[in-house]
Design goal:
The complex is a heterodimer of chains A (about 475) and B (about 210). Chain A contains 20 helices and eleven strands. Chain A is α/β, with parallel strands linked by helices. Chain A has one domain: TIM Barrel, CATH 3.20.20. Chain A has a five-stranded parallel sheet with strand order 5-6-7-8-9. Chain A has a three-stranded parallel sheet with strand order 1-11-10. In chain A, strands 3-2-4 form a three-stranded mixed sheet. In chain B, helix 2 packs parallel to helix 4 and helix 6 packs across helix 7. The radius of gyration of chain B is 18 Å and the shape is elongated. Classes of the chains: A alpha/beta (about 475), B alpha/beta (about 210).
Chain lengths: ~475, ~210
Amino acid sequence: MAKQWEEMTSDERQEALFQRWLSPEGVEFVSPEAEKLYKERATRIKDAVQMKKLPDRVPVLLIPSFFPAFYSGLTPRDVMYDYEKANAAWKKFYVDFQPDAHFGCVAPGPGKFFDILDYKLYNWPGHGIAPEHTYQCVEGEYMKADEYDAFLQDPSHFFTTTILPRYFGALEPFKQLPNLTTINEMYGSGIIFYPYGLPDVQAALKALMEAGSEALKWMGYFGAFFNEMPALGFPAGQCDYTKAPYDILGDTLRGTRGIMTDIYRQPKKLIEAMDAMLPFWIQKGVAPAKAMGNPFIFLPLHKGADGFLSDEQYKKFYWPYLKKILLGLIEEGVVPFLWAEGGSNTRLEVIKDLPKGKTVWLFDEVDMVRAKKVLGDVACIAGNMPMDLLTVGTPEQVKDYAKKLIDTCGKGGGSAPSLIMLSRKMSGPWLTSLRNTASTNRHLSNRDSNRVILQRVCTRGYPDGTPSICIRLR
Amino acid sequence: MAKDLRNTLADLKEEEALAIVRDRLKAGDDPLKILDDARRAMEIVGNRFAESKYFIPDLVYSGEILKSINELVKPKLATEGEAKRGSKVIIGTVAGDIHDIGKDIVVFMLDVSGFEVYDLGVDVPIKTFVDKVKETSAPIVGLSGFLTLAYDAMKQTIEAMKDAGLRDQVKVMIGGGQITEEVMKYTGADAYGKDAMTGVSLAKKWSSA
């Protein structure tokens, strides 16, 4: 009889999740070829990640952000508001490029949902951003310096009554909502519930219901896409995301300036808050992985980059809590798929302190030779294709750089095949130029050729232990 | 005897630094002298950053302490007029991009280095840059951008300055997460900086030339 989850080791749990991913439940493949491709691709990725044996060739992954929209001649605005068009564009992208996994079509998100709730945390195309550009975060101090205690005491209530009203204009009246965790008697219940009768609170609740309907509608498209892609032969490269505690607080709660000041003014509170959020954010990764039978959870890393913290600060405030998240995921068989934005040169020796074959590291700016040397026997590494090169470089330069990456870190070297990730920040001219053929004539040829080179590399892949290409378009 | 404000502030000892400022103000010290010491402390901070002894949080925190010092000193200042200002620098995040953290740090370091900084904010239309150069005759322009969409916005902004006949009278530096020498060439800028202190060095070089 199969072992129960509770009795399994973390290795066994990872293997169990991979096995479910290799044979996805309820998927009806469109053809025997699609089924064969699916199994080959999933096995290839599994072998690269687990580092137990060399994959048949190195997997090729593309994380496209908004690229599929541009590729189909659509604007980010178009795909945020027309879910059908979004699905078609994303499907065309994966089918044309034939990468070894798909990453859903979740990037655009439901535009109308954000309209209904008057979202403040980001500006998006048509709403503070030009329709041809992608959404961007509005930097701010959404949680104030003196709110750590409220956050620590009751995170749910704090989010409902303090953070949500700041993130969503339509939920401003939630400031008045009561703390329902104090309901335990008939006596007094009427008093506690009266805010739900206030006209502005009721309007906010109606907006919430309307937004929920829109989210549900969008999820229908999104879900259909997630069902269709495996049937076409593409395993899902991720099923959800989680983050490093320092980034959770720094990105959209305390803000960059806020958290950097907290390091000096209230380091104990900062650490206490990061500790407190661990169970939530581990569970945020574990629950969907187990529910969907997909081992991969994505983690975008931001404020631990080179220069953003001193070595000492990184070891005190960033890494220990990220490591706890990673080990919490690994314990449950989940494979953290990390995307280290910015520079990672000063972090390699610190992050190598992880069990072997349990993580994937996608690097943005890093000396890949050294990264391979330091992490080569610990984890799959990927990335480092410069965005400026993809945007303004010539096809030859792109090809040479890709070859150099393959030469320096592509050697299988026993049990450590590497992934290469070609990355770029989103919405760049290279992308838009595909659409605006007339206005950027000179560079169009280069950029178009770059795309073709990537496509060629991606579709052919490289045999025997050389790296995959993984593009993270941001 | 009050401790040395310059070193205390440069070492980022906030409470001590503020105590020194309060003591000096109470003792009737010249507020301008206090601000001058603070400015010199910021020079030390900038140098430590350039030497990789300090990192971005140190720059940000030094800015926060300086803000508190300014709040203490300001009411005691006889006039609004600040100490002598250096060259004018126009700076902003280019059209389409709303990222400001990096730009704000450069503005802050230029400001404490004595430059007269015109911060145009984020998502700045091309015309606004051109108009500001005409209005102020600033010899230095800094264009900031985090996303690759900024490459074309930078290029177009620089071309617009050329079209307005202003290109020869300004030096243009660009900066941001994805900015490299290749991008500099693409946009037609004169130089690029990987961090705030490179921006300050460039501005110093250009203003003394």
